[in-house]
Amino acid sequence: MSRKCELTGLKPIVGHKVSHSNIKTKRRFLPNLVDVTVHSDALGRSFSARISAAALRTIDKRGGLDAFLAKAKDEELSPEMLKVKREIAKKAVAA
Prior knowledge:
This protein has helices spanning 53-62, 65-71, 79-94, and strands at 13-18, 24-29, 33-40, 45-52. The protein is α+β, with helices and mostly antiparallel strands. Strand 3 (33-40) and strand 4 form a beta hairpin. The chain is elongated, with a radius of gyration of 17 Å. The model has no long low-confidence stretch (mean pLDDT 95).
């Protein structure tokens, strides 16, 4: 299982741990990933995903998974979430 957010594409980044004597040692900053089940109102289904805590807050702010996916860029989404986005768009056109 990769350490990548399925919604925002957030990955580990590399930086330095800096000691008191200013010695720099390489380290990795890992994203805060959470296994959650998110619900789509348009489809009436739930989807399990591994997303960052920041993405979870953004979903709440935008008003749900459907609104988040409508604004999300296709390059950042995982293949599974891209499929969900297309299903929601297809359902919106049909309605």
